[in-house]
């Protein structure tokens, strides 16, 4: 049986991540094509320097045409204006601006960049309200992207 597009793509991405690792990104678990766990370490010179965070990528057979579900895992969630305390990430490339040319590595770099540009550790202003009503998947949220400076 021929490999599907998503298994070919994820096999290549995993191989690329292993042969060309990204500074501050460590693959913890990538045993299948459904769920990967990665560790992100805060970049030097940022407010998250040397802090360790855990990301989970969940893939469907529609990947890469459809974005993966990406969230931080408790208790390794950064305090950040675009990251809710349930691990959901408000980042446009994960939702409305997803493109099939993006990779897991590029998503990790975008999240690292988002963390690195932050100057104050604080939760989103609507955190409490959001986590009370949010579904388990951040992809089921209708996000409003209004601040790309953090």
From TrEMBL:
Keywords: Ubl conjugation pathway. Pfam families: UQ_con. This is Putative ubiquitin-conjugating enzyme E2 W-like protein. Residues 5-150 form the UBC core domain.
């Amino acid at each position: 049986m021929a490999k599907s597009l998503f298994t070919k793509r994820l096999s290549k991405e995993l191989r690329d991540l292993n042969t060309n690792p990204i500074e501050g990104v460590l693959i913890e678990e990538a045993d299948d094509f459904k769920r990967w766990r990665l560790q992100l370490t805060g970049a030097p010179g940022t407010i998250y320097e040397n802090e360790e965070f855990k990301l989970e990528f969940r893939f469907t057979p529609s990947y890469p045409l459809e974005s993966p579900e990406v969230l931080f895992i408790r208790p390794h969630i950064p305090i950040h204006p675009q990251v809710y305390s349930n691990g959901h990430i408000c980042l446009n490339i994960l939702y409305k601006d997803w493109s099939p040319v993006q990779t897991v590595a590029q998503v990790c770099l975008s999240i690292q960049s988002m963390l690195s540009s932050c100057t104050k550790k604080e939760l989103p202003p609507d955190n409490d309200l959001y986590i009370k009503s949010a579904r388990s998947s951040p992809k089921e949220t209708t996000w409003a992207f209004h601040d790309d400076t953090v």
